[in-house]
Amino acid sequence: MTKNELTFKDGFEILKKNAELLESQEQPDIDNLMKIVEESMIAYKACKSRVDAVQQALDETFKD
């Protein structure tokens, strides 16, 4: 999975799922923590990229 393969909605769902998983654990699952962090970073970058693109398009539309 790469950030280019994820939509904003998919990335957001991954971030939400991983946040809920981490919050619900009484003890951290160290064995899977790196996988969760890596997956979350890819999802975050996909979401940020999409938000940045929308912001740029809005800036271009409303400049001047």
Notes on the structure:
With 64 residues, the protein is an all-alpha fold. It is 78% helix and 0% strand. The chain is elongated.
Features:
64 residues; mainly alpha; 2 helices; elongated
Structural class by SSE content: mainly alpha
Query: Secondary-structure element order, as H and E?
Result: HH
Q: How confident is the prediction overall: mean pLDDT?
A: 92
What's the tally of helices?
A: 2
Low-confidence stretches: none
Main β-sheet, in a few words?
Answer: none
Number of strands: 0
Task: Briefly characterize the structure.
The chain is an all-alpha fold. It has helices at 8-24, 30-62.
Topology, please?
Elements: H1 8-24, H2 30-62
Helix pairs in contact: 1-2
